[in-house]
Amino acid sequence: MSLSPGLHRGVPSADYLALDAIGSGRLGWLATSPMHYRYMCGQPRAETDATELGTALHSALLEPDLFLAHYIVEPDPHQVAPDAVKPRATKLYKDAVADLERSGRTVLRIDEMAAVRAMADSVRAHPHAARLLERAPEREVTMLWDQDGRRCRGRADLLGDGVLADVKTVRNLAKFSPWVISDRAYHRQAGHYTIGLERLERRIQHVFFIAVENVAPFDVGVFALDPDALRIGQMECENLLARLDECEASGCWPGMFPEVVTATISDRMLSDLEEVA
Q: What residue ranges do the domains of the chain occupy?
């Protein structure tokens, strides 16, 4: 698919991921090291169970009509192969799943389908999350823009007048801020998206994360991204693109530790040693 710079609605996720443009994922590879970036750019994209569940949640929550068209629950393994110790490992079960997959839909296990529906229901039941869903009615908006001579891309979960919101799944909601945001660089992703939206004349004043646990009880929290964290994310994006320019110009793609680094022990062990002393 070939798209011009701008905001595009109705772009399938697979087509978005196939766009040859710099997204937040590529910036993440570059943040690890230029060596990792160059390597990962040549690898096929692989989804983990967690990302597949997150993709299903996005569809169920943001595009419920498409969810019904794209996803279907597995046949009950114990009914398909009632005498098997591991019914999902049987040919009967695999053939039944293959029949469903021929329709072009993704087959979710019974527990996965229940979790996706429970997560979506929990988000809708949360008062602040429900308000955001109303305030940002544009869903799964593909963004394409040019920045410093490069084509960049992003995909906004929820977009409204001055508002950008992203839906995230998390194992433990209590650790979402600041640990998960920092570890997964969600602030940098938000920085990348807001830079793009501003270049497309959509000024964003508030960035939110709707975080939902992917295990029971599927608790939900709404987090407003700190403006300083957003600015840091934007600066990181600009610095990474500048570093990419340098690597392409020099032909040098260093790893994480191009120089000798002093090896030491953790602060926790140092503290323990001081207490013993």
A: 6-46+126-250
